[in-house]
Design goal:
This protein is mostly helical. Among the domains are: about 80 residues, 434 Repressor (Amino-terminal Domain); about 110 residues, Serine Threonine Protein Phosphatase 5, Tetratricopeptide repeat. The protein is about 65% helix and about 0% strand. It has 21 helices and 2 strands. It has a two-stranded antiparallel ribbon. It starts with a strand and ends with a helix.
């Protein structure tokens, strides 16, 4: 369905020409993006011609999909007003801003929290369905540069004008902040064990809306406010990580940007670095290795002399992942060596942040194996994967599953088909116990690599075992 504007949509025509997209090409891209979110769209070149020449405005998610399709080609976010569709259903810019003012930062974050819940209640992915495919790594440029220039706000004390329903301003204390920190700790544990899509993990956006937002809009001293912003930043980063794990890249990006802004208000530079490292991992996973390097190095530079040795080790490890994806073996090797050196210098009594509890030599070895997988060095992959799998744990189930897939790839590239299938079967068994689109994608990649051996009995068996996992709804 469409409704008509007055006259041609010259803005859309101009941007299409700038992007070098034909009418048929845009229709195909919009249909494909819709299919990724379970929408059956049948636009063609005639549909696009009507949008441009007659000013017809497509309904539902289509305007946002049009912006996303053009944005992918241009390599940057494309707002609806730029393509003459600003009067379509609103939504799209929430969460992308990195305000300089603390009050505006609170507004930006709480708007995102409310929007996410609305999306979940609307069904079929809600607002995130409308934003399908709108991830753009360039959206991280301004947040990263502003954080680098000013990693801490001068004051965050706030006098609230709103009330909690009783007529009295909501006064925030340390006990309120502690509840958020405990919620973050519980969420980290569930996420590692059951995946970002598990229902217990998905309560994080609800916690942000119901618990964190009213506190951020309340009244607090500078001291309490710093702690509040830090706890809210942790939860917001977690929401982004879980969205990333379940394949909602556009939602993850918005959460990460707001988490970085909240970390700045908290004056917590290591936490800001951790958010940047998360951004780097997402960029690397999406194939933007160079940008991943930039984000990881931003985290490193601001934390020299501030973060603990273990924290610096993790940041260097994330940098190595990005270098490896960018096919820079020398830089990846140097970053891995530095990461291992920092880890060896860490001590049990160091004041490591609670959010780094997952990071040990096992995790270092697992990521080192993935670096060498990207660099096509199967011997090194095998060596580090053996170390990563030496201590299987029920606490980090998803990580164990990912390591098994990486091990299977290494065995395959070494010519050991039986061993690759054996590890693949174990990985599928683990993946079936968690809710993680990322783990499923790893399994899909393994099956794709096995296609040349499709008639081998062990490959057939693995494919059959993986079938329920691959057919499960996203």
């Amino acid at each position: 369905m469409s409704r008509e504007q007055r006259g041609p949509n010259e803005k859309l025509g101009t941007v299409l020409a700038l992007a070098g997209i034909s009418n048929a090409g845009l229709a195909r891209r919009v249909n494909d993006l819709g299919a990724q979110r379970g929408l059956t769209l049948r636009y063609d070149k005639t549909s696009v011609a009507r949008w441009v020449s007659k000013g017809m405005v497509p309904q539902g998610a289509a305007p946002h999909l049009i912006a996303a399709a053009i944005g992918q080609k241009l390599g940057r976010p494309v707002p609806l007003h730029e393509i003459g569709l600003a009067d379509a259903d609103p939504a799209p810019e929430v969460g992308l801003a990195f305000p300089r003012d603390v009050g505006q930062a609170v507004k930006s974050a709480t708007e995102l929290y409310r929007l996410d819940l609305a999306g979940r209640r609307a069904g079929s992915g809600g607002i995130w369905q409308s934003l399908a495919g709108s991830f753009a790594v360039s959206a991280y440029a301004t947040p990263a540069s502003r954080w680098l220039i000013t990693p801490a706000d001068s004051s965050v004390a706030r006098e609230a004008n709103s009330a909690d329903g009783s007529g009295a301003p909501l006064k925030v204390g340390h006990s309120d902040v502690q509840k958020l920190r405990e919620a973050a700790e519980d969420a980290r544990r569930w996420d590692s064990k059951y995946g970002g899509g598990d229902w217990r993990s998905s309560m994080v956006p609800e916690c942000l809306r119901v618990e964190a937002a009213p506190l951020l809009l309340g009244a607090y001293s500078d001291e309490v406010g710093r702690a509040l912003f830090g706890a809210s930043a942790e939860l917001t980063r977690l929401a982004g990580w879980m969205a990333f794990d379940t394949g909602q890249q556009e939602a993850a990006q918005r959460y990460y940007i707001q988490a970085l802004r909240l970390a700045r208000a908290a004056a917590d530079v290591p936490l800001g670095g951790y958010v940047l490292a998360s951004m780097s991992l997402q960029a690397t996973y999406r194939g933007f290795g160079d940008e991943g390097v930039d984000l990881a190095q931003a985290a490193l530079e601001r934390n020299r002399g501030l973060a603990t040795a273990r924290t610096m080790s993790f940041f260097r490890l994330v940098e190595a992942r990005a270098h490896a994806r960018a096919s820079d073996a020398q830089a990846a090797g140097a970053a891995l060596k530095a990461a291992e050196g920092w880890l060896e210098r860490s001590r049990e009594g160091d004041n490591d942040p609670s959010w780094l509890g997952f990071y040990s030599y096992d995790r270092f070895a697992a990521d080192a194996a993935e670096c060498y997988r990207d660099l096509k060095a199967p011997r090194q992959v095998r060596r580090f994967t053996e170390q990563a799998l030496s201590k299987p744990t029920e606490e980090f189930v998803r990580s164990h599953g990912l390591r098994l897939v990486v091990s299977a790839v290494a065995e395959l590239e070494s010519g050991n088909l039986d061993a690759a299938c054996e590890q693949g079967v174990r990985a599928v068994e683990v993946a079936g116990r968690i809710s993680s689109a990322r783990t499923t994608e790893y399994v899909k990649d393994l099956l794709h690599r096995l296609e040349p051996y499709g008639d081998e009995p062990r490959v057939v068996e693995l494919r059959e075992r993986a079938r329920p996992l691959l057919m499960a709804p996203a």
